[in-house]
Fold these 3 entries.
Entry 1:
Amino acid sequence: MTSTRVTVGITASRAAQRAAEWAAREARLRNLPLRLVTAVDAPPSDDARDDDAADDHGKSVLAEARDAVSRTAPDVDSDTVLRRGPASRVLVEESREAFLLVVGARGLDGVSPTNSGSTADVLAVHARCPVAAIREGEAELPGGGPVLVGVDGSPVGERALAFAFHEAALRNAPLQALHAWSDAPAEPWVQHRGTGLSWDRIEDRERALLAERLAGRQEQHPDVEVDRIVVQDRPVRHLVERAHRAQLVVVGSRGRGGFAGMLLGSTSQALLHSCPAPLIIVRHQP
């Protein structure tokens, strides 16, 4: 995995400050430099003093984040960047030279928030590298928990699985591989339509498929302890439930249920707004 830096989007929100602390730890873990970026999305002004005030506010936000980074990981080489424009556009451009783009799960719409919609959603789709979304309070969660990954067999799911194995090996952490073998809510009294197979027989088949998907990755990372989890249900509920005990959750941006025109899958989108642990979304390839 080639890279140049870990990049984090900075705003005045508490979630963004937590994201900076988390990103500093990630940069130190990977021995990479850290870049703190803030976007000043202020409306044009005829008074240069207004523009200067917006820039000064942005610089203040960056300085506060850099102080937090220095306290968290003083040995990490970091720099700060202030750019004008919408946060989503600025961070997508910055992602071209990043191994990982880190953002707070709230307060992502620039120093002067004027945008509508979620910047995190935009970045999960358009960033050129994996995106980590950090909710307020996550940066201080202790390590030692597993890396949790959603496995669905899709091409982007395979990339997410490879990323998760790499993360588990890097952190010396166990890996929990969760595979949901139904995209419908669990109804154990119903047989799988059109197959004539009972749920038990389908579950045996899905366990075998999961083992097959994991086999090659386990050969590449023999020191990673893997816990295989197969559930009959939509994956979001089980991922969120287990995320409370995980140090990291990894999913693909669009799974097996995604249509060609669907840029962000339902699972990744739901987790983006509800995952209680740091979440990394590995995007699909254009």
Entry 2:
Amino acid sequence: MAKKIVIVEDDNDIRDNYIDLFTRQGYEVTGYPDRAAAEQMLKKALPDLVILDIGLKGDMDGGFELCRLLRQESQTLPIIFLTARDSAIDEVLGLRLGADDYLTKDIGLHQLLARVSALLRRVEALKQRSEHEQVLQTGDLYLNMDRLEGTWKERPLDLTVTETWILRALVQNPGHVKSRDQLMQAADTYVDTGTITSHIKRLRKKFLEVDDEFEAIESVYGAGYRWKS
């Protein structure tokens, strides 16, 4: 069955080009020009992946608001920002709101297709893991890779797909330093080091929300991060 992609983009020509691009790759694609139209349809049924612009028809931050809404509906739905806004502040905000990736519109079409494919592949891989690989447990952390669920001290953590893979890479080898490149490989994504740093910060924040003394994710200057057992 074809994977379903929703594209929210207010420029008709750009939206139609992306719809054509993904349709030719075998995806089932629907496009919306503004937040109101997208919200109405997305509340009825969620697709397999959503691509969002930030500014939507006079709504300067409409994409951010839509991302916030989608994350309330699902922590595991893959979300990509695809925008002309290339400021570091916008990128950090997008990732903090729960996006799995933040891309600018000057990205090559082949790269865009690869990023979408990687995100969908990660979701599918998690669903297909064998029984003995589905659960990771170390200390107070419980991570169910099949259900994309995690708990810390028996309190639930709302993890995105990308956060789940990054956390898995850290906890599989407690005490071992993982470089940003290794975390990118584990998450099957290729972004700059600042984006990985933003994902780590968001992960820490989620742990601190359930445990204000959490300090298991340690930064190692010049090397990366490790999970302290």
Entry 3:
Amino acid sequence: MAGGARAHRPRDSLTTLQESFAFSQQIENLWGEADCAWRLAHTRLELGHYGEAIRLARQGVKQALMVGIPTMVVLALSTWGTIQRTVMALESARETLLEVLAESTEQGLTGFADWALAELCALHALAGDWGQAHVYARQTLQSRGDEPLLPMGLTGWYEIEALLRGGDNDLARAEVERLGGIVGNNKRYRLPLLRSLAVLAQWDGDTDQAITQLQAAAALAQEIGLPGEEWSLLGTLGALYADQGDQAKAQQAWKASAAIILRLAKTIDEEDLRAGFLAADPVRSILEISEVV
């Protein structure tokens, strides 16, 4: 998908989108403002500006509904669902993403279910419901078909793990191979590829290779400036270091992850959302094991 939401230079995208957003407001172009709002919300999310992402996503959904263009409504809702999943408001995210699927079906939109299905897979994986994650992983692959296109979702490693856990080993490996063949020089899409390769390596019992892939992904996330990716990568690395008996490296990774988590939490203005983010199992476990709380 074009635009700032999928660019591999989110800081540059932010400047361009802010200018477009301000101009649309100035000339009272509701269509332009609505289109910029959801794109800007996703870019803010990528950069770790969670509070601003939440505000813009809500605005984007409201304005997209006012404009009434089905594709814009679906994209704005998908962005909002992604943001809710990222701040660990999983039940709210599920409701939003199911609304995306219903809207896509009702409007006869093709090619737009990919993102919502991938997000539903991710949120069920985060909740530990791998059975339902497997269902959505298979549906995600079906929605993509055989088209040699980059996925709309950016959480493919959850799909790979769900497929492996569900017994679809060949499907999982074929999807990683497919993604590897189309990523090219897109750094943003290289991140889920590296994470997917790490999942495969860990599944095969090759912890050293999994760590190598995750280290490369963490370095890339830091280079691009994606703290939401970086904290979870460091958390996973910490667990793998601990499995190898290297407690010093594990604590170093967990403490770095916890520091990013706390920085991200500070950007969430709404107390209930901030508290929910910090209390979510994947987040709380890192804060506890790093001895931050």
